[in-house]
């Protein structure tokens, strides 16, 4: 019998019935840089924490289990994870990428990856012809679904079929849904990326990133690269992620419930012109989400009627925090134009649908009545 995801957030089957670490239920923080050897040619299994650390290893096994992968790699941030993954490529390689990505990913492409000789074609992978963009030197397709911030939904199975026909890697950033709601490897992806800072950590108190794969060859290359480049997650941060993941399911369900109610409320506001939430039946990705995910998540993007009203909302919120990031216990509101996507060229932002009227909401686990009450007060001031 396959265990449920909430159980796998808490337990590794391989440790059951054992009393390692004195029976500690909270996995210990192995705050050490190096390890003593019993003798020449012998090892405890750990040599140096840049290579591996017991706390990080336990976390990686949990995340691999949640994503149905064979191996996972815990990095110091989501951007460190993407940077490490891109070490699989070489100058001259071409990547077909979703255009509506987190701004930090686009910054990495523009200022590091292109310098290193990689070429990119950017598409709306939910609508455009992905296969037509493939070249003889294409090595991978990279998508987010839903995208950040415009919530475009790509069909992972369909794009996987394209990737397999051309012997390409399919890389899926699964940050917005987390493994609780979506498992891209089961849908044909080769690699899954997470900003662990977000839903996996869940408490806005640490940075982390993950790469998960079910391909042995990729895992072996990444294990060599993580020890070589040195961006593995530190022991204490690994422990914070282990603690956060224990409540992943509870948080995801509550935050999603709040998002569904807030999306419905936003649709009724006269100052709101658009609501982008894949849990709304009118969202173009709604049916795809029902097929490839177990939920719709807790991220909402919406447009208001004027830039001035967008700025006024950010000025007036109190309990809801005007802050970058997402996926924590607290509800956050973000202004992509000057925050998450500030380094994206304006013409690219506008083409992707990000305007000065665009706001992004990450719903937390507060009582939804309190969130609506606050927004009602805020919106009453911008009429």
Describe this structure in words.
The protein is α/β, with parallel strands linked by helices. The protein has two domains: 5-245, Aspartate Aminotransferase, domain 2; 249-380, Aspartate Aminotransferase, domain 1. The chain is built from 13 helices and twelve strands. Helix 2 packs parallel to helix 8 (235-245). The radius of gyration is 21 Å and the shape is globular.
What is the overall shape? globular
**Named CATH topology of the largest domain:** Aspartate Aminotransferase, domain 2
CATH hierarchy: architecture of the largest domain:
3-Layer(aba) Sandwich
Q: Within the largest sheet, what's the order of strands?
A: 1-7-6-5-4-2-3
Question: What low-confidence regions span 5 or more consecutive residues with pLDDT below 50?
Answer: none
Give the number of domains: 2
Mean pLDDT: 97
Order of SSEs, N→C? HHEHEHEEHEHEEHHHEHEHEEHEH
Radius of gyration from the CA trace?
21 Å
Helix proportion range: 25-40%
Summarize this structure briefly.
With 383 residues, this protein is an alpha/beta fold.
Describe the secondary-structure layout.
Elements (H helix, E strand, L loop, with lengths): L4 H4 L45 H13 L4 E5 L2 H8 L8 E5 L4 H11 L5 E5 L14 E7 L11 H10 L3 E5 L4 H4 L9 E5 L13 E5 L2 H14 L5 H11 L2 H20 L4 E5 L9 H7 L6 E6 L2 H10 L4 E2 L9 E3 L11 H7 L5 E5 L5 H13 L3
Parallel strand pairs: 2-3, 2-4, 4-5, 5-6, 10-11
Antiparallel strand pairs: 1-7, 6-7, 8-9, 9-12, 11-12
Helix pairs in contact: 2-8
Which key features would you list for this structure?
single chain; 383 residues; alpha/beta; Aspartate Aminotransferase, domain 2; Aspartate Aminotransferase, domain 1; 2 domains; seven-stranded mixed β-sheet; five-stranded mixed β-sheet; 12 strands; globular
């Amino acid at each position: 019998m396959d265990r449920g995801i909430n159980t796998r957030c808490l337990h590794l089957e391989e440790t059951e019935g054992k009393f390692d670490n004195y029976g500690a239920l909270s996995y210990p923080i192995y705050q050490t840089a190096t390890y003593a050897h019993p003798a020449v040619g012998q090892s405890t299994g750990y040599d140096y924490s840049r290579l591996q650390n017991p706390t990080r290893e336990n976390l990686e096994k949990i995340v691999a289990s949640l994503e149905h992968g064979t191996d996972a790699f815990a990095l110091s941030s989501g951007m460190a994870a993407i940077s490490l993954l891109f070490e699989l490529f070489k100058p001259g390689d071409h990547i077909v990428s979703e255009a509506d990505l987190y701004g930090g990913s686009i910054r990495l492409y523009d200022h590091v990856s292109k310098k290193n000789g990689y070429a990119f074609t950017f598409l709306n992978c939910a609508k455009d012809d992905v296969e037509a963009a493939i070249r003889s030197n294409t090595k991978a397709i990279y998508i987010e679904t839903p995208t950040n911030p415009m919530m475009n939904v790509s069909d992972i199975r369909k794009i996987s079929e394209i990737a397999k026909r051309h012997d390409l890697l399919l890389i899926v950033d699964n940050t917005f849904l987390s493994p609780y709601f979506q498992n891209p490897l089961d849908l044909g992806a080769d690699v899954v990326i997470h900003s662990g800072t977000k839903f996996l950590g869940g408490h806005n108190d640490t940075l982390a990133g993950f790469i998960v794969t079910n391909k042995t060859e990729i895992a072996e290359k990444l294990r060599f690269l993580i020890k070589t480049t040195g961006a593995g997650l530190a022991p204490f941060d690994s422990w914070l992620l282990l603690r956060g993941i224990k409540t992943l399911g509870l948080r995801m369900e509550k935050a999603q419930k709040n998002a569904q109610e807030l999306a419905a409320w936003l649709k009724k506001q006269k100052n709101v012109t658009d609501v982008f939430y894949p849990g709304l039946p009118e969202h173009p990705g709604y049916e795809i989400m029902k097929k490839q995910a177990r939920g719709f998540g807790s991220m909402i993007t919406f447009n208001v009627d004027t830039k001035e009203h967008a700025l006024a909302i950010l000025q007036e919120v109190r309990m809801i925090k005007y802050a970058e990031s997402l996926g924590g216990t607290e509800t956050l509101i973000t202004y992509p134009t000057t925050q998450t996507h500030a380094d994206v060229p304006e013409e690219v932002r506008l083409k992707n649908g990000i305007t000065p009227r665009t706001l992004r909401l990450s719903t937390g686990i507060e009582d939804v009545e309190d969130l609506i009450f606050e927004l009602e007060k805020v919106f009453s001031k911008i009429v």
